C-alpha cells in the first residue's frame, strides 16, 4: 500500500496528497506534517518495518471537503486520490487514482465561492516584451484572453481580474515579471506542463477541446500569444481536474477600443470596487450601485464598473434600457420579483457539466428556467432595443423543466448515495423495486404486533441495525416464553435478540431491493443530469441574459432612488456638468444636504482647472465626483447631477494621495512620481486626468517646479492635451496659469469666523489667497500652544523678518509668487522678477525659464569648498558618508570665516 502511495505521490509532487484508506483520507511524510499544522489536527505515526515511524494524519472522508478547502484557502494544492474499483471485487490492493487536484484557482464548491465575485485562474505567456493573458472562472465557464505590449499593462489587467492563481510557462516561475506579478498580486504562482505554452501545441489543445478547425473560429488568428496563454491554461485545467470541461465557453478576446481603460492606480484611488480604508464594499461605487437580486447579475455589474464602455452606440442602448426601467416602476418591480426566484444558473450548469451537481441543483435549474417565460413576456413589451433583443434570444426550456419535474422528488436529499431521489412513475423498474421495498418494510412493521399476539410477550420489539440487520428483541425476564422457531442472534445485558427463517427471507429481499434501488436511482439520476447537460450552452446564454437584465434594473433602481438624470453622450470632447454630486458621499450623508457643483472641461478654453483651497474643503471630493460621473455615464447609468453632457473618455487617470511602499523600497514621493509618470506617458486628448497635490513629497522648490512643468506639459503637448482637474496648495501656480489660454482658476469657498473657518464646499471660479493651514490644524485638535506659536511664525514670515532667520544669519531676499525664499546674504542674489507679457500663449515658456536660482554667487565660484563639491560623485555616497561630509564642510567653512 505504501508503494502505491509513493507512486501516486510522484504524480503530484507539488500537492498535498489525500490518500483514501477506508473511511479516511490519510496523509503521510511531509504532507502529514504540513496538513497537521495548517488544519490543527493530530499528527501520528505509522510503522514502516523500522524503529522510525512515518508521520501520518487523516480526516474522515465525509467531511474531507471542508479540510481541502481550508488548505486551498491557505494557498496549497490538494490532490484527491480515491478508490476507483469495488473493494469486494479487487484482487490484491484496491486500485487508486488521483481523481482531481484542487488548487486556489480551480475551486468550484459553492461554500468556498463568493456569490457576486468571480474566482479566476489566469495564465501568462511572455515573448519579446509582449504578454499573452488568459483568464478563466471554472465555476461559470467564462474564458477571456488578451495581449498587451508592455509589462505595466499586463499587471494592470492582472490587478483588474485579481486571479487566485496564475500559471506561467515551466521554468519561468523565477523570472523577473513572474516575481513582480507574485509580489504585487499576492497570488499563488504555478507552472504549466512542459511546452504546453508553445503556440503549435496550445493551438492544438484549443482546437481539439472546442471541436473547431482553426483559431479563426475564436477570432484569435492575429493574437498568437493569447492563443498560447489559453492553450496552456486549458492544458493545466485538464491535468488537474481530470473530468469534463464541456461548460467552458470559447475564448473571447478583450477588445480595448470598446472600453475605457482604467489602470490599477485609478481603480484604487476612485474606490470603484472596494474602499482604501478597510477594503470593504460599503463606501465603494460598486456597493452603491449593487441592487442586483441574482448572483449572476452581481458579478456582471462588477465587470461593468471595472470596464466602462467607450462606444457611443452601446452606451446609448444601455441608457435607453435603464431609462425605460427608470420610468416604469411596475415593470421594474415585476422584474425584480421574478429575478429574485432565479438561482445562480451559471454555476449550477457548470456543476452539471462537471458531474458534481446533485438533485437539489437540478431542481434549482428547473425552477429557475420556469421563470424565464415570464421575464421574456415583460421584456418583449418594452420599447428598448436591448431588452427586446434579450427577449428574442431566450429559448423555450419547457422540455428541460418537464424532465426535471418528472424525474426529481419535491424534497430530494443532499447525497445521491442515500436514495429517495427519483420520483415515482419516472422509471417502471425503479417503481417495482420501490414497491418490493415498501411491502417488505410494511410486513416487518406488522411483524411486531403479530409476534406479540402470538407469543404473549408484551415487551417484544422488532429492530434493525447495519451490523446485524433486522432482529426480534426480547427482555431477559421473557426469554422463557420465546418459541422454538426463534434463532438466537445476539446476547445483550438485559435481553436476547432473535431471528426467524421468515424474517431472514424478508430481510434478504428488502436489502437486495434497496441495494439495487439505490444503485439504479443513482444511474437514473446520472442519465437525467447528462440530458440536462445537452442544453448547457443554451442555459449559459440564458444566464447571461438574466444577468444583463438584473444589472439594468439595478442601475435603474439606484437612479430612481438617488434622483439621478440621464446624461447626454456628446460627440465632442466636452464635459459639462450642472449641479454635480459625488454619488457615494451623497449616499452616506445622514440628513445633511450635499453641496453640488458645476464642471466645465474641454480641449480648448477649459482644458485644465487649477483648484486651490484648504485641506478638508472638498477639492478631492469634487474631482473624484467628476471622474465618477463620467464613469457612470459610460457604464450606461444615470448620473448624480441636474444636467450632464459627457464626451466619451478613453482613459481616466487619477493621482490622489499616496503612501510609502516599504516592501517595494519606494517612498511616498517615489510612489507619487511613478503614478504621475504613468499618466504623462499614456494620456491622450480624450483622457480625463485627476491630479491631487503633485510635488508635495519633496522640497518646496522641487515641488513647485515639478507641478508647473506638469501643467505646461499637459497644456502644450499636442499628443496629450487631456482634460485635467489639478488641485494644489502651490498658490504660485495661479499666476503662471494666466499665461495659458486653456487653464482656469477655481477654489473651494471657505468663510472665516474669528480664528476658525467654515467649509462651504462650493467651487468658485477664482484662485484662493491662502491655504488656511493653521485653522485646519485647529480643527484637527493640535495643542493650543502649538497653534499660538504657529501664528507668531506666520506673522513673522509675512512681514519678511522671521526670528529664526535673523538668529541664523539668514534673511529673505526674493519673493516668488508670494512664497518666501530665504538665502544667505553673502552667497545669494535676488531672483529676477517675472514680467507680465501681453501674449499669454507665447510667453509661457519664457516666464517659466526665467525663474532660476544660482546656488552660489559669482564671487564664491573659486572657493575650495565649491571646487570640491563640483568633483564630488554624490551617487556613490552612503547616507552616513553624506552626513560626515556635510559636517566636515561646515567645520571648514567656519574655520575660513574665523
Automatic annotation (TrEMBL):
For whether the record's keyword set contains Disulfide bond, the answer is no
According to the entry, every stretch annotated as the DNA mismatch repair proteins mutS family domain falls at: 687-703
Q: Where, by residue number, does ATP bind?
A: 613-620
Q: What Gene3D superfamilies does this protein map onto?
A: 1.10.1420.10, DNA repair protein MutS, domain I, MutS, connector domain, P-loop containing nucleotide triphosphate hydrolases
> What CDD domains has UniProt attached to this entry?
ABC_MutS1
Tell me which InterPro entries the record gives: DNA_mismatch_repair_MutS, DNA_mismatch_repair_MutS-lik_N, DNA_mismatch_repair_MutS/MSH, DNA_mismatch_repair_MutS_C, DNA_mismatch_repair_MutS_clamp, DNA_mismatch_repair_MutS_core, DNA_mismatch_repair_MutS_N, DNA_mismatch_repair_MutS_sf
Q: Please list the GO terms describing molecular function.
A: ATP binding; ATP-dependent DNA damage sensor activity; damaged DNA binding; mismatched DNA binding
One Pfam family recorded for the sequence: MutS_V
Which residues does UniProt assign to the signal peptide? none
Q: Which GO terms describe its biological process?
A: mismatch repair
Q: Which UniProt keywords apply?
A: ATP-binding, DNA damage, DNA repair, DNA-binding, Nucleotide-binding
| Record bears the keyword DNA repair | yes
**A GO CC term assigned to this protein in UniProt:** cytosol
Superkingdom classification of source? Bacteria
What is the protein's known function?
This protein is involved in the repair of mismatches in DNA. It is possible that it carries out the mismatch recognition step. This protein has a weak ATPase activity.
* Family under the similarity heading: Belongs to the DNA mismatch repair MutS family.
Q: What's the protein called, per UniProt?
A: DNA mismatch repair protein MutS
Q: Origin organism of this chain?
A: Tumebacillus algifaecis
Amino acid at each position: 500500500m505504501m508503494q502505491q502511495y509513493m507512486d501516486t505521490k510522484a504524480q503530484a509532487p507539488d500537492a498535498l496528497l489525500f490518500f483514501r484508506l477506508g473511511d479516511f483520507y490519510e496523509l503521510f511524510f511531509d504532507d502529514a506534517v504540513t496538513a497537521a499544522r495548517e488544519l490543527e489536527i493530530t499528527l501520528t505515526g505509522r510503522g514502516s518495518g523500522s524503529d522510525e515511524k512515518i508521520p501520518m494524519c487523516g480526516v474522515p472522508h465525509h467531511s474531507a471537503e471542508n479540510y481541502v478547502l481550508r488548505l486551498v484557502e491557505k494557498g496549497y494544492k490538494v490532490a484527491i486520490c480515491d478508490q476507483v474499483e469495488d473493494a469486494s471485487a479487487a484482487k490484491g490492493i484496491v486500485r487508486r487514482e488521483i481523481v482531481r487536484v484542487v488548487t486556489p484557482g480551480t475551486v468550484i464548491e459553492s461554500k468556498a465561492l463568493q456569490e457576486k465575485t468571480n474566482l479566476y485562474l489566469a495564465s501568462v505567456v511572455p515573448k519579446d516584451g509582449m504578454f499573452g493573458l488568459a483568464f478563466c472562472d471554472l465555476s461559470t465557464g467564462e474564458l477571456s484572453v488578451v495581449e498587451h505590449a508592455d509589462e505595466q499593462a499586463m499587471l494592470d489587467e492582472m490587478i483588474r481580474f485579481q486571479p487566485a492563481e496564475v500559471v506561467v510557462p515551466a521554468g519561468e516561475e523565477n523570472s523577473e515579471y513572474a516575481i513582480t506579478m507574485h509580489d504585487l498580486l499576492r497570488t499563488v504562482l504555478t507552472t504549466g506542463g512542459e511546452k504546453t505554452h508553445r503556440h503549435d501545441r496550445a493551438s492544438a489543445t484549443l482546437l481539439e477541446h472546442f471541436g473547431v478547425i482553426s483559431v479563426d473560429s475564436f477570432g484569435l488568428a492575429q493574437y498568437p500569444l493569447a492563443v498560447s496563454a489559453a492553450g496552456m491554461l486549458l492544458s493545466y485545467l485538464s491535468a488537474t481536474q481530470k473530468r469534463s470541461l464541456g461548460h467552458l465557453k470559447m475564448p473571447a478576446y478583450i477588445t480595448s477600443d470598446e472600453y475605457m481603460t482604467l489602470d490599477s492606480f485609478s481603480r484604487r484611488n476612485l474606490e470603484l470596487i472596494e474602499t482604501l480604508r478597510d477594503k470593504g464594499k460599503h463606501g465603494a461605487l460598486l456597493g452603491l450601485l449593487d441592487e442586483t437580486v441574482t448572483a449572476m447579475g452581481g458579478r456582471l455589474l462588477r465587470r461593468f464598473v471595472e470596464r466602462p464602455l467607450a462606444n457611443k452606440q452601446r452606451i446609448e442602448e444601455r441608457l435607453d434600457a435603464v431609462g425605460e426601467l427608470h420610468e416604469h416602476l411596475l415593470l421594474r418591480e415585476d422584474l425584480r420579483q421574478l429575478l429574485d426566484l432565479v438561482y445562480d444558473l451559471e454555476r449550477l450548469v457548470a456543476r452539471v457539466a462537471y458531474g458534481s451537481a446533485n438533485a437539489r441543483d437540478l431542481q434549482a435549474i428547473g425552477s429557475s428556467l420556469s421563470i424565464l417565460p415570464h421575464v421574456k413576456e415583460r421584456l418583449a413589451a418594452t420599447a428598448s432595443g436591448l431588452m427586446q433583443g434579450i427577449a428574442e434570444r431566450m429559448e423555450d426550456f419547457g422540455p428541460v423543466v418537464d424532465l426535471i419535474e418528472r424525474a426529481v422528488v419535491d424534497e430530494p436529499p443532499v447525497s445521491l448515495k442515500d436514495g429517495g431521489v427519483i420520483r415515482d412513475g419516472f422509471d417502471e423498474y425503479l417503481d417495482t423495486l420501490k414497491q418490493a421495498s415498501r411491502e417488505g418494510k410494511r410486513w416487518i412493521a406488522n411483524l411486531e404486533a403479530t409476534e406479540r399476539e402470538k407469543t404473549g410477550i408484551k415487551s417484544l420489539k422488532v429492530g434493525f441495525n447495519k451490523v446485524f440487520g433486522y432482529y426480534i428483541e426480547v427482555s431477559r425476564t421473557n426469554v422463557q416464553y420465546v418459541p422454538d422457531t426463534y434463532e438466537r442472534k445476539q446476547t445483550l445485558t438485559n435481553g436476547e435478540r432473535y431471528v426467524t427463517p421468515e424474517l431472514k427471507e424478508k430481510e434478504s429481499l428488502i436489502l437486495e431491493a434497496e441495494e439495487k434501488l439505490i444503485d439504479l436511482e443513482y444511474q437514473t439520476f446520472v442519465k437525467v443530469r447528462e440530458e440536462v447537460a445537452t442544453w448547457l450552452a443554451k442555459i449559459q446564454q440564458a444566464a447571461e441574459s438574466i444577468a444583463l437584465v438584473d444589472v439594468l434594473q439595478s442601475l435603474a433602481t439606484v437612479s430612481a432612488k438617488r434622483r439621478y438624470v440621464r446624461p447626454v453622450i456628446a460627440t465632442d470632447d466636452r464635459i459639462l456638468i450642472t449641479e454635480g454630486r459625488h454619488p457615494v458621499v451623497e449616499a452616506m450623508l445622514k440628513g445633511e444636504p450635499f453641496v453640488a457643483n458645476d464642471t466645465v472641461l474641454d480641449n480648448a478654453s477649459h482644458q485644465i482647472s487649477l483648484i486651490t483651497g484648504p485641506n478638508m474643503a472638498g477639492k478631492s471630493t469634487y474631482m473624484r465626483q467628476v471622474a465618477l460621473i463620467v464613469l457612470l455615464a459610460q457604464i450606461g447609468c444615470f448620473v448624480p447631477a441636474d444636467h450632464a453632457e459627457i464626451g466619451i473618455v478613453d482613459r481616466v487617470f487619477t493621482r490622489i494621495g499616496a503612501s510609502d511602499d516599504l516592501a517595494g523600497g519606494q517612498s511616498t514621493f517615489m510612489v507619487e512620481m511613478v503614478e504621475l509618470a504613468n499618466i504623462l506617458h499614456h494620456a491622450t486628448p480624450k483622457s480625463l486626468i485627476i491630479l491631487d497635490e503633485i510635488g508635495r513629497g519633496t522640497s518646496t522648490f522641487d515641488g513647485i517646479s515639478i507641478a508647473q512643468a506638469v501643467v505646461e506639459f499637459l497644456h502644450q503637448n499636442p499628443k496629450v492635451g487631456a482634460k485635467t482637474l489639478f488641485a494644489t496648495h502651490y498658490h504660485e501656480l495661479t499666476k503662471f496659469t494666466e499665461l495659458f489660454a486653456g487653464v482656469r482658476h477655481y477654489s473651494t469657498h471657505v468663510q472665516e469666523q474669528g480664528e476658525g473657518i467654515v467649509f462651504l464646499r462650493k467651487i468658485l471660479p477664482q484662485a484662493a489667497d491662502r491655504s488656511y493651514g493653521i485653522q485646519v490644524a485647529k480643527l484637527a485638535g493640535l495643542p493650543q500652544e502649538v497653534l499660538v506659536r504657529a501664528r507668531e511664525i506666520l506673522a513673522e514670515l509675512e512681514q519678511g523678518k522671521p526670528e529664526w532667520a535673523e538668529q541664523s544669519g539668514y534673511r529673505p531676499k526674493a519673493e516668488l509668487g508670494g512664497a518666501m525664499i530665504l538665502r544667505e546674504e553673502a552667497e545669494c542674489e535676488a531672483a529676477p522678477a517675472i514680467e507680465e507679457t501681453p501674449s499669454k500663449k507665447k510667453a509661457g515658456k519664457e516666464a517659466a525659464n526665467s525663474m532660476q536660482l544660482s546656488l552660489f554667487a559669482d564671487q564664491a565660484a573659486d572657493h575650495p569648498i565649491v571646487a570640491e563639491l563640483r568633483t564630488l560623485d554624490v551617487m556613490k555616497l552612503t547616507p552616513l558618508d553624506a552626513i560626515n561630509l556635510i559636517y566636515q564642510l561646515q567645520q571648514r567653512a567656519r574655520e575660513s570665516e574665523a
